[in-house]
Automatic annotation (TrEMBL):
<dbReference type="InterPro" id="IPR039420">
    <property type="entry name" value="WalR-like"/>
</dbReference>
<protein>
    <submittedName>
        <fullName>Response regulator transcription factor</fullName>
    </submittedName>
</protein>
<dbReference type="GO" id="GO:0006355">
    <property type="term" value="P:regulation of DNA-templated transcription"/>
</dbReference>
<feature type="modified residue" description="4-aspartylphosphate">
    <location>
        <position position="54"/>
    </location>
</feature>
<dbReference type="InterPro" id="IPR058245">
    <property type="entry name" value="NreC/VraR/RcsB-like_REC"/>
</dbReference>
<keyword id="KW-0238">DNA-binding</keyword>
<dbReference type="GO" id="GO:0000160">
    <property type="term" value="P:phosphorelay signal transduction system"/>
</dbReference>
<dbReference type="Pfam" id="PF00196">
    <property type="entry name" value="GerE"/>
</dbReference>
<keyword id="KW-0597">Phosphoprotein</keyword>
<feature type="domain" description="Response regulatory">
    <location>
        <begin position="3"/>
        <end position="119"/>
    </location>
</feature>
<keyword id="KW-0805">Transcription regulation</keyword>
<dbReference type="GO" id="GO:0003677">
    <property type="term" value="F:DNA binding"/>
</dbReference>
<dbReference type="InterPro" id="IPR001789">
    <property type="entry name" value="Sig_transdc_resp-reg_receiver"/>
</dbReference>
<dbReference type="InterPro" id="IPR016032">
    <property type="entry name" value="Sig_transdc_resp-reg_C-effctor"/>
</dbReference>
<dbReference type="InterPro" id="IPR000792">
    <property type="entry name" value="Tscrpt_reg_LuxR_C"/>
</dbReference>
<dbReference type="Pfam" id="PF00072">
    <property type="entry name" value="Response_reg"/>
</dbReference>
<keyword id="KW-0804">Transcription</keyword>
Amino acid sequence: MITILLADDHKIFRDGLRPLFTAQPDMEVVAEAENGRDALRLAEELRPTVAVLDISMPELSGLEVTRSLSQRAPDVHVIILSMHSDRRFVVEALRSGARGYLLKDSGFEELVHAIRSVVDGGVHLGRAVSEQVVQDYVALAREEEPGVAQPLSAREREVLQLLANGLATKEVAERLHLSVKTVESHRKAVMDKLEIHNIAELTKYAIRTGLTEIE
């Protein structure tokens, strides 16, 4: 039986997918999550065969969850669902450890095919993700492109995501149970590493690399 963790911050989307998975004779949804932090916790606890993750979720993005799972639960196969066909999102998802990347307007049959493909050891990119994206990924795997590589630590990316989502430094500190001074230190480190000097540019970087998106 292929067990599935379904993570998306829109309940109506999860409610639509769950019965479709249930109708498959070899698939079962064992858990759902509405934010990235819960998705990561449930994936570590339950070790589902596949985690189907929205790329943009509260708390932690789908990419951040994928990075963590690749280290802490590598047996969980990750498929990213996204509204973005931009090669930068696809490249970052694959580099983070995802085994599949589909657009949200893909058909359910393709999602089922993707799940079975990654369980069998393959990698699945949605039909709408162009051949050029694959070519770009191969090229970028050989040479680092500015703005795609992630020189930040997991904590720094976490702070960046929350700042890009509009939280003030004090709110970030409360959310992460850190001191304001520590958050300020992380923010400075992020800016220094990326050579970015204001929140607006940090937000653009976060959008470009899939940490957050414009609603």
